[in-house]
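User: tokens in, sequence out, please.
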């Protein structure tokens, strides 16, 4: 009986040493592996300049009271950044301005626009076309469903860099996506380099005076 107990203790000790040896060997194996460099995607650089968005309506926008989120006008930037959200009616011909617009980056940007057309009663012809942009609306056979249009202009430092007219399907809200490609601000780095060269040219040596 004592012999059996001693044998069990010896076997337990051998097993424990084997487990510890295996763990230590695995840790040494991990440390022997070459280091893997981790790479993080750098965030897009914020575009320089003052940005503004003008939205011109050719019809009276109204929120749909039966919608889960009734809005007369909503404008968002990529990533779900909401730039503007209105619920009150917006009269035809009004220019809605978002100024300033934050979050625009260098490179490709996306603007998402949605405008409600619920209970629109402002259908009518005009010398320039009922949409105000030089082309008339598309009427359904019964004259009720109308295709609507909205013009979106994006300005950078008061210069138009993008302009697009978004149309709806007859009787549907105006929804659309505007792709905006924003290049780096031109002349900013050149101006700094030119100023530095100008200062170096006219600077005096240490301890002396400029001629």
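Assistant: Sequence out:
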């Amino acid at each position: 009986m004592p012999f059996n107990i001693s044998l069990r203790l010896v076997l337990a000790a051998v097993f424990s040493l084997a487990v510890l040896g295996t763990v230590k060997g695995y840790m040494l194996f991990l440390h022997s592996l070459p280091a893997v460099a981790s790479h993080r995607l750098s965030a897009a650089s914020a575009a320089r300049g003052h940005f503004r968005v003008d939205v011109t309506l050719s019809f009276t926008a109204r929120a749909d009271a039966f919608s889960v989120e009734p809005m007369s006008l909503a404008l968002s930037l990529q990533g779900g950044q909401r730039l503007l959200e209105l619920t009150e009616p917006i009269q035809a011909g009004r220019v809605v301005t978002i100024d300033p617009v934050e979050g625009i980056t260098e490179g490709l940007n996306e603007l998402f626009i949605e405008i409600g057309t619920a209970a629109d009663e402002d259908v009518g012809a005009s010398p320039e076309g009922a949409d105000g942009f030089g082309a008339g609306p598309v009427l359904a056979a019964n004259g009720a469903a109308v295709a609507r249009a909205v013009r979106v202009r994006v300005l950078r430092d008061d210069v138009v860099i993008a302009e697009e007219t978004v149309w709806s399907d007859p009787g549907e809200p105006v929804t659309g996506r505007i792709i905006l490609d924003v290049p780096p601000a031109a002349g900013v780095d050149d101006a700094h380099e030119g100023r530095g060269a100008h200062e170096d040219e006219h600077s005096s040596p240490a301890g002396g005076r400029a001629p």
